[in-house]
Specification:
mainly alpha, 2% strand, globular, binds ligand UYC
């Protein structure tokens, strides 16, 4: 195992994302010494914004029973690897924890709830948003939610991913829906069972945004100035 570890450490640090993606699960299988390499890796990279590669490494540690991994996360990353910044005093720990265990369905529900919380008590009670509320939503908070999704989904899920696809299609909704797996032919994908709640889903499949009341809310979300700034 010592040899295995040494032959994996270097490409983990210096390899392409594709190489790193393959090495992380291999390290996970090597027990405590593999976990040590992943901890060292996360610490080295902590000054930089977390990427989905950091997310993969973090998830291995988060989902490990090893006491050393638990202790490491408790002392170095008690709130995960994405800074949970909020301008509205909102706590994103529950979203972070659900995404860390890849419970995308529960994370999607919490995302809808947090989006309502961001807009205030009337939206919380209503359980859905007006597009004017979305326009006034904090960019910092939207970036936090988005970064959590990105980092814990191999960069596959998140509003900014949906926005890129939407823009690439000239904002054409009818082309957009099938692309992200929300519609097939004339048939909307049925909530919740027909959606794909794992990484085999098409890019941009999650988070969901109920289209029952029209596309204006979603259009506002994808046009929000939050996506013009580089996420920190
Ligand atoms: N649902 O079909 N959706 C719900 C989606 C539509 C409907 C929730 C997404 C089409 C009803 C979420 C799609 C439609 C309810 C989503 C989708 C429809 C409901 C839970 C593909 C019928 C019960 C959160 C675009 C043709 C609630 C919430 C209600 C719920 C998401 C029906 C996350 C992405 C047009 C009847 N659907 N939704 O908002 O309000 O309740 O009656 O988008």
């Amino acid at each position: 195992p010592a040899n295995d570890i040494d032959s994996l450490r270097q490409p983990l640090i210096a390899g392409s994302e594709k190489v790193q993606q393959q090495i992380i699960p291999q390290l996970a299988e090597l027990g405590n010494e593999g976990l040590d390499v992943l901890m060292e890796f996360l610490l080295k990279r902590r000054e930089n914004p977390a990427t989905w590669i950091d997310g993969k490494a973090y998830q291995v540690l988060y989902n490990s029973d090893a006491p050393q991994a638990k202790e490491f996360l408790r002392s170095c990353f008690p709130e995960g690897i994405v800074p949970l910044k909020s301008e509205c005093g909102i706590n994103y720990n529950s979203l972070q924890q659900l995404l860390a265990v890849q419970d995308f369905q529960a994370a999607d529900r919490v995302t809808i709830e947090k989006m309502c919380e961001l807009s205030g008590p009337t939206a919380v009670q209503r359980k859905w948003l007006y597009f004017t509320e979305v326009e006034n939503t904090s960019a910092v908070d939207l970036q936090t939610i988005n970064n959590l999704w990105l980092v814990h989904s191999e960069g596959k899920f998140g509003f900014s991913v949906q926005r890129e696809i939407w823009l690439s299609l000239g904002k054409n909704w009818e082309n957009f829906w099938p692309k992200i797996g929300w519609k097939a032919g004339n048939t909307w994908t049925r909530y919740p069972n027909e959606f794909t709640w794992d990484l085999s889903a098409p890019k941009g499949h999650l988070p969901l945004s109920n289209q029952l009341r029209g596309v204006r809310v979603f259009a506002s979300l994808l046009s929000h100035p939050a996506w013009l700034k580089n996420p920190e």
